[in-house]
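Hi Y.,

Following your request, here is the sequence exactly as I used it, all 307 residues.
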Amino acid sequence: MNWDQARKLLHLSAESGGGESPGGGAEFDPRPQVLSEARATSICVASGKGGTGKSVVTASLATILARRGRALIVDADLGVGNAHILQNVTPEVSFVDVVDGRLPVADIRVGCRENLDLLGGGSGVSRMAGLSSWEMHMLARGIEAIETEYRSVVVDSAAGISNQTIAFAAASDVVLLVTTPDVTAMTDAYAFLKALLLRRGDCQPLFVVNRASSEEEARGVADRMIAVSRKFLSREPRFAGALPEDRAVSRSVNARTPTVLAEPGSPFALSMELLVARLLEELDLHPPRGLGRSLLRTVGYAPGPIA
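Below is the corresponding structure, written out as tokens. Let me know if you'd prefer a different format.
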């Protein structure tokens, strides 16, 4: 792949035509495992860069899913976690306590509201950004132990394409990539997609265009993302919809409340309801494998950072 060409094409008008092509092989084994107990469906909300609104989307997504049954937010930004802020909770324990051997994953859960719990990431703990394979195994085993208690798990991913960030995405049933019309966000979303497909070639990610000024702008972004991915990856992500630029979002963030709760009639909240309906359709196509169970299959026991 010519990276410079891909970046340039993201600035240009969409290319036309072409169907979806099968991807190449990957080291991730996509075959579903026979599980003794029903496990939660899992959605990873990801982005190539920070500032796209990924955590805002996660907060509202998890809130809507909690109406259907018990839901869990996994703050996978392990060193700079902030998913708790938009739920207006202040966890006293986090994944740091699990890695340090003080607590099991089950004991770091924090209740946000009825039917919604949170597993918090560390705050300003740089070493959590590069865990060893054994430490990732500890987290995966802990998530596996509790995921049968939930109907849905939503992963609030770290920005970027680190190995452990891609591992969480590859282990999820559905990946939702959040981008904005900003060309740097699109470029980084493409980079995330490329890294994800190298890890898990069978993945069919969805993407949403956040902070769109109009449906036309969102559709233009979608066409460019699809065209560039088709050209250089022989694959394409699927457009799941648009979320509008909306001042209700900033007001709800300042209130530390998901937008769908703070201002349920706002354009953003109504668009989130439509997006979740699309995601539920997608989840119906994927028998839940279990986030923890799948994550265990991607990590080993080596003392160094995960491969």
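Residues 13-35 have pLDDT under 50 and may be disordered.

Thanks again,
Q.
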